[in-house]
Amino acid sequence: MTVEGSCADEFAEVRAEFERNFAERGEVGAGVHVTVEGETVVDLWGGDAGGRPWTEDTITHVWSCTKGATALCAHVLASRGELDLDAPVTRYWPEFGQNGKADTLVRHLLSHQAGLTAWREPVPQSGMFDWELMTDLLARQEPFWTPGTRHGYHALTFGHLVGEVVRRVAGVSLAEFFEKEVSGPLGLDFWLTLPEDLEPLVAPTIPASRGETLPKLYVAAMTRPESMQGMLLTNSGGYLAATDTREAHAAQYGAVGGMSNARGLAQMYRPLALGGEYNGLRLVADTQVPVMSSVVSAGHDEMLLAPTRFSLGFMKAVDSHYLPVEDRAVLMSEDAFGHSGMGGSLGFAAPDSRMSFGYAMTRMGQGVGVNERGQSLVDAVYRALGYRQATGGLWFR
Which Pfam family, an example, fits this chain (predicted)? Predict the structure, then answer.
């Protein structure tokens, strides 16, 4: 298998680990992209993209990496003074205040504290493709806990919650706002709704093989179908069985469903690694970046049943080396923020080193975070930047 692309000499270990992923870790098709000080230092790809070679233009489903794009849209509006993250959601979405949610703040939606981790009412077949239906269900739903008192990963609902606030403030859909204000100006290979003419570029995902043990989320869903974990996996209108269809690619979700590649992920985070601006384009104010990076919710996750940490819309590193592999999260530096996607894709910014990172692949891993293929690349990047690692844990200078 031939790896193509470019890699600066000082990041040669990243290329070596990328090649090892194919040779030893079961990688099928993937790409990795890294920028430092705004310059591309790693841009590699290789493998199979559904019966054809993975090229520099190949894109794939990056799952929950989509949440980073949605959160960024909210922060763009906040940076402009158009959205107050500390305001009640009802200021922008009046219908949302039903059934005990009147005091829910916008920040609760971003930090997975809203208590709306799954849909309670039955979602009809293909209902996930109907934005208005799904947001209406959430607006009238009772939360699983008092908003702001606990946190739990909003795996599928995050995009409809945050995305509807973006839509109400901006006056256009989440996907339109992202294209107009983020992906278009930055020239990203990243779509929240994929144009039909780009379908030939899509590499289909390969489901993870079942390991000896399952993440706690899946164990709870199978043993307690009435739990919110059970509702998450069984009440999505069939979405989880249709993610590789044209219908799914054309719809918008905001939590999952984004189509991109390693380059698109890393280059979306590039301005955020540089204080909010790249190449003359100011995406957010420099004062907004610390807001995006600061931890808001941490500890036991009511949905994942393992420790997690979140800022306002982004995943933070968790020193989770002591957890079983299937429940581990990505290990980054403390300043870093971004998002992983189910199966192992990842994008993030590390402002202290002015670095951004992206990794996307077809074969999914077993865990809820980044598996050894993606983590090996992250580790190699940090070593190249002169970082050290706590025993099996977070990276530091």
Answer: Beta-lactamase
